[in-house]
Amino acid sequence: MNEWQGVIVSDPNIMMGKPIVAGTRITVELILEKLAAGESYQQILEAHPRLTLDAVLSAIAFAAAALRADVVYPAPPLAA
User: Cα separations (Å) of 67 from 24, 48, 50, 70, 79?
Assistant: First the structure.
């Protein structure tokens, strides 16, 4: 079993089926956006008290597994 299974779930009736942390409406997408914006784990946990460090790490593991199993989309070229 993957370390994220049971922590990250998807239900078409919650957040349009986007992957979320079980028992919340907090999407994997939101967690990744916050990390990409430079927020620390601690800042995310303080902003969302229902989250745990395990849930944040599970969101990252889920995203890695999804990318590993999915089509890779080319990134646009960087501006010179």
Answer: 23, 25, 26, 5, 25
Amino acid identity at 25: R
Domain that holds residue 51: 8-69
Question: Is residue 80, in this structure, part of any structural domain at all?
Answer: no
Q: What angle do CA 56, 21, 76 make, to 5 degrees?
A: 65
Name the domain count of the chain.
1
Q: CA Rg, the chain, in Å?
A: 14
Task: Identify whether 75 is part of a domain.
Answer: no
Q: How many CA atoms, within 13 angstroms, populate the side-chain half-sphere of residue 9?
A: 11
Question: What's 39's domain CATH number?
Answer: 1.10.10.10
Look up the pTM and report it: 0.82
**Contact call for residues 61 and 4 (beta carbons, < 8 A):** yes
**Above 70 in pLDDT, residue 1?**
no
